[in-house]
Design brief:
mainly alpha, Four Helix Bundle (Hemerythrin (Met), subunit A), two-stranded antiparallel ribbon, 2 strands, globular
Amino acid sequence: MKRIIQDLVRQIPNTLTLLNLLCGSVAVLLAVRGYLAVSAFLVMAGFFFDLFDGMAARLLKAQSPIGKELDSLADLITFGLAPASILFGIQELLGQGGPFSLVQPPGTIILRLLPFLLPVFAGLRLAKFNIDERQSHQFIGLPTPANGIMVLALPLLMHYQPESFMNGLLNNDLFVPLYSVIVSYLMVSPLRLYSMKIKGFGFNQNKFTYTFGAIAILLILLFRQTGVFLIIPAYILYAGILAIAVKE
């Protein structure tokens, strides 16, 4: 009986990862059907499952090679394909280029499909991460969940915060294509960012993570859904400075 309980406990991290994958898969379907806000909430749920599966694996000492690979597969869907589907849906909703069709001019088709660069480069970033031993305390390139956080904020602020300045940017036909290209590059760039992974629950070993958590909460309180989007630019600035400082 004790062995069975131990085996079940060891499966908790992988179960959380699979829930992340489930959220991402359903988010893709809903985004394609036009339910962008619901899709965004599912990506958000996937983010929290992704946050806690690694923490659970470390606390339960249940880390495994299959868990590492499964985590990457889930992240590819939830933070790569699902955000791409949401961005494509935003273009459809705003009528940017008209209803998508293969008879449109080639330039229009390319612009509409640029969001799907995100899962391509997310896959490349995750594959590099899995074999790169330098990324235990620092990330090289923007982590894929960052893409998910920024994109999930967009349909939410469109729905709940129409006065946000971000809506003006979204109405520009070039915003989604430019976002897709820039973030795709950042995921595989040599940009060094300090890792915000939680290591236990003590303050000293997590002081940088807890400090940024307070910054993130403040941004959301001040700017609501727009603040969710701004968390990642703030993270790049904060984690970039830390990466330089810690290296020195």
